[in-house]
Amino acid sequence: MATESKTITINMGPQHPATHGVLRVVLELEGETVVKARPVVGYLHTGIERTMESKLYHKALPCTDRMDYLAPMSNNLGYCLAVEKLMGIEVPEKVKWARVCLAELTRINSHLVWLGTHALDLGAMSMLLYTFRERELVLDIYEACGGQRMMSSYIRIGGLAHELPDDFDTRVRELITTVRERMLDYEDLLTNNQIFINRTKDVAVISAEDAINFSLTGPMLRGCGINYDVRKAQPYSGYENFDFEVALGKKGDAYDRYLLRLKEMRESLKICQQAIDGMPEGPFRAHVPGVVLPPKEDVLTKMESLIFHFKIITDGFKTPFGAVYQAIESPKGEIGFYISSDGSNKPHRVRVRPPAFINLACLPKLVEGSLLSDVICAIGTIDIVLGEVDR
Amino acid sequence: MGTQARLGFQLLGIRIGMSQTQGKMAGMEEKVRSLMMTRFADAVIREDNFCDQQSFYIQPEKLVEICEALKDDSGVDVQLLSDITSLDWLNHDQEKHGRFEVIYNLYSLTHQYRFFLKVHLPADKPHIASLTDLWNGANWLEREVYDLMGIVFDGHPDLTRILTPDDFEGHPLRKDFPQNWEQPVFSWNKDDPPEVIN
Predict the structure, then answer these.
(1) Contact assignment for A210 to B85 by CB distance below 8 Å
(2) Burial class (CB in 10 A: 0-12, 13-18, 19+), A260
(3) Does B163 touch chain A (CB under 8 A)?
(4) CB neighbour burial string for B111-138, b if at least 16 within 10 angstroms, e if fewer
(5) Would you say B144 and B162 are in contact if contact means Cβ atoms under 8 Å apart?
(6) Structure confidence by residue, pLDDT tens digits, A147-189
(7) Is A9 part of a structural domain of the chain?
């Protein structure tokens, strides 16, 4: 009996541990080779952008944590910077430095989870246990700052929610030493590991032209050697004061992006060190009556402060008519907030440029023509968080 | 002490760097403006510079032509289509220009410069040409705008819903879409509720 070549269609996800959440990929296979891949998203769509339209500016902030739940502080920072740009608020120097430090801790947090899960997908089970152990240190700092471990909402419009904790300085220093030391262990486990190299080298390759054509940002774009980092290209929150390098890859394969993310973590540690060493003294909130909450002791002793406090909490503040866009470098890539204001106390529209959503669109390009097992590697190397992809 | 001195030095360095970037920004702004005004004077409705962000309101018919020119011109060199998004101006003054606004966020990697193209579209059957021939990245971005705002992109290879289910009714980011309205994706009920027997 003659056999003819046939393709079969299989469904991967949306409940599959290696799809990092509720991603579904419809794969058309010929033997073990992927002929066609179609990612299907939207299983976690919660309408966050629409929800933010119905809230006052400062009450829309907690929504941002819930998008990319591995990088809450980056999302907070992007939203706050956008509103501050719209209102023309200048925050104190100390706030800028603290925000930079927190945003870099977030990058370490997100990359640690990425490293653990990516290695787990490829069979290196123990990595997950080690990286989650270090991630705990970052979460402890979040908890000390904002009282919450994941949805911290600590960065607020015009400053921070509270004063930094007294032991912030020692905790961050401790984290820097520990993580720097333990990263050597990660490298021992993975960088020269033959299985890991075989699974990642020349897998999920994308060329520089394609990367630009697909609007990729973050490690996905830099992995092909294109130097685009929002922290350097359009510095925000005082990043121009810090000395760090932008990590770049060469070939644009999964192994390159692994090395690149490790380097980024080391650069983040460097930035944290500089931020802690040079943290200036000063208030933790800008003084903008009617927009930023007054200090609590003033609320209890001064009439005007009490009135402002009450007005901000109940009525919010009005913004000038217009639209602003603020991009920041989140661990996944360029996250941008496009806030359109119609002059009222609620945003007319908040658009989030989701880096993971846009990076995920290139998945068919990465996997078509490769083996089924490489799909797992490709999904891992894009570094998606479905909360942000679907919003 | 050593660290402090180094940081002070850096601060000085940045101030010089800052003025250079600002100068470059102004130069780019002028370059983009002159390109738009010389080649597409009739297509540009107005220019807007809110919060130092350059944006051009253009005629929707000229969008693809303008994007092609911006991509090919080495002086501007827009390579990255950063984002596509949309607004609904229902019951606002802006509605007179057209109810919907589509915003194209363009970024030049070589010149590190970002600017926006904006178009107004009418309330009745809003449609505009797709940019998928120029950028693959436009594919999902346009699908999202179609899904949530109901703007049709002509020439898109696969214009289907992306975030909401395929049989979803309405476009949830439109201002007249009821915010608390649920459309259950799955239900065991096939008919009307049965009569209650006590």
Answers:
(1) no
(2) buried
(3) yes
(4) bbbbbbbbbbbeeeebebbbbbebbbbb
(5) yes
(6) 888 888 899 998 898 889 999 999 999 999 999 999 999 988 8
(7) no
Helix (H, G, I), strand (E, B) or coil at A326: strand
Quote the Cα angle for B82-B171-A151, to 5°: 60
Is A234 part of any domain? yes
Does B11 touch chain A if contact means CB atoms closer than 8 Å? yes
**Model confidence, pTM:** 0.89
Task: Name residues whose C-beta falls within 8 Å of residue B180's C-beta, 6 or more positions apart in sequence.
Answer: none
Tokens of A76: 């907070």
CA–CA distances in Å: residue A47 to residues A42, A43, A206? 10, 11, 31
What's the pLDDT score for residue A31?
A: 85
Mean pLDDT for B10-39 is: 64
Burial B181-194 (b: 16+ CB within 10 A, else e): eeeeeeeeeeeeee
pLDDT in tens, A263-314: 999 999 999 999 999 889 888 898 888 888 888 888 899 998 999 999 999 9
Residue A27 covered by a domain? no
Secondary structure letter of residue A281 according to DSSP: -
Q: CB distance B83–A42 less than 8 Å?
A: no
Q: Is the ipTM of this complex over 0.90?
A: no
A365 domain-assigned: yes
Which residues of chain A are modeled with pLDDT < 50?
A: none
Scanning B110-139 for CB atoms below 8 A from A yields: 112, 114, 116, 135-139
Domain count, chain A: 1
- Which CATH number does the domain housing residue A76 bear? 1.10.645.10
Residue A152 domain boundaries: 48-390
Nearest to B156, CA basis, from B129, B137, B135, B122? B129
Q: What is the Cα–Cα distance from A7 to B122, expressed in whole angstroms?
A: 45
pLDDT in tens, B44-73: 888 888 888 889 999 999 899 899 888 888
Percent of chain A with pLDDT over 90: 46
